[in-house]
Design goal:
38% helix; alpha/beta; binds 1,3,4-trihydroxy-5-OXO-cyclohexanecarboxylic acid; 6 helices; globular
């Protein structure tokens, strides 16, 4: 898993004032582009991350992207985000439908989390209709391919701006 920018390196005043957002991707999303493109589209994970960094620049937010196939590593990333991020755009992948621990991690951190899915989970198998995390997220976007991340990021930035939280 890629780690966020070093917390030890001193930030310039301008960087320090910037909203900081974690884009967190769960299991199997490292295979995007090759994985069931008819369901998830042809954009790779790096492609999505590049789009998010560019959109962040446009909207004045600093974006850090991480992916892990491991539940514990995702929980650690959420805990860590409390210390440096203003919010999280999170695609928990298959853990969406199974993980009490990820739900608890989202509840435990105070920063807003937006749940995103590339596919429309409600148009798929019944086991995907249930999300254990939705109730503890600020919002949810599903079914717009990689644009789900874009919509989620725009919504999260609006929420953070309205809350007036900039410094962590
Ligand atoms: C997904 C939907 C999940 O049901 C699935 O397990 C995924 C991807 C999505 O982005 O559409 O891995 O989160």
């Amino acid at each position: 898993m890629r780690s966020p920018q070093s917390k030890d390196a001193p930030l310039s005043e301008e960087e320090d004032e910037k909203m900081k957002i974690l884009i967190l991707h769960g299991p199997n999303l490292n295979l995007l582009g090759a994985r069931e493109p008819e369901v998830y589209g042809s954009m790779t994970l790096d492609g999505i991350n590049e789009k998010m960094v560019l959109l962040g620049k446009e909207l004045g937010a600093e974006i850090t992207c991480m992916q892990s196939n491991h539940e514990g590593a995702l929980i650690d990333a959420l805990h860590d985000a409390r210390t440096w991020a203003n919010g999280v755009v999170f695609n928990p992948g298959g853990y969406t439908h199974t993980s009490v621990s990820l739900r608890d991690a989202i509840s435990a951190i105070v920063i807003p989390v937006i749940e995103v899915h590339l596919s429309n989970v409600y148009a798929r198998e019944e086991f995907r209709h249930k999300s254990l995390v939705s109730a503890v997220c600020k919002g949810k976007v599903s079914g717009f391919g990689w644009h789900s991340y874009e919509l989620g990021l725009r919504g999260l930035i609006d929420i953070i701006s309205a809350l007036g939280i900039i410094k962590v």
